[in-house]
Amino acid sequence: MNYQGIIDKYYPDDNELRSILLTHSRAVADKALLIARRHPELSLDLCFLEEAAMLHDIGIFRCDAPGISCFGTEPYICHGREGAELLRAEGYPRHARVCERHTGAGLSLDDIVSQNLPLPHQSFLPETMEEKLICYADKFFSKTRPDQEKTYEQAERSLAKFGEAGLERFREWHRAFEGTDS
């Protein structure tokens, strides 16, 4: 797969949004790859991990988030689902799953229904180790400061406002990927 070609297709202009996307995605990919290389026992697909991490936010341009130069029409919570639609149309269903499952620490059907989120009523929880690792690595980098890595505590605090279930998933991944509780 040529992930750069897909990025170029949807982000053809050298502008602030493309820069934010590339900086953020590269940071997430690098963190995920670093963790994966420290855990050969997990037998993670490093090529897929890099591709999917570089494409996990491909749908942000369709969303309304002026603070990060996104001037689309969809609510930002839909950026993963929007990206998944793009990647499925490109013939990459496995990469599409990463897009739609990386928001927060994944979104359960209960999260979507109870919070009345504008998403299909289904579970968007990461299932594969690659999906979980990209979701985990993503929590350390915002798009408002894409070149600055958050501490574990900062990442945890940013997830806490969305409920205990997601926070517990993040902590579980932290134990699995970092081998520690903090």
Question: Keyphrases for this structure?
Answer:
mainly alpha; 182 residues; 9 helices
What do these coordinates show?
The structure is a single chain. With 182 residues, this protein is an all-alpha fold. 55% of the residues lie in helices and 2% in strands. It has 9 helices and 2 strands; from the N terminus they run αααββαααααα. A two-stranded antiparallel sheet has the order 1-2. A hairpin with a 4-residue loop joins β1 and β2. α1 runs parallel beside α3 and α2 crosses α7. The longest helix is centred in the N-terminal third of the chain and has 23 residues. The model has no long low-confidence stretch (mean pLDDT 95).
Secondary structure topology:
Layout: H1 3-10, H2 16-38, H3 46-55, E1 64-65, E2 70-71, H4 79-89, H5 93-101, H6 109-114, H7 129-138, H8 152-160, H9 164-178
Antiparallel strand pairs: 1-2
Helix pairs in contact: 1-3, 2-3, 2-7, 3-5, 3-7, 4-5
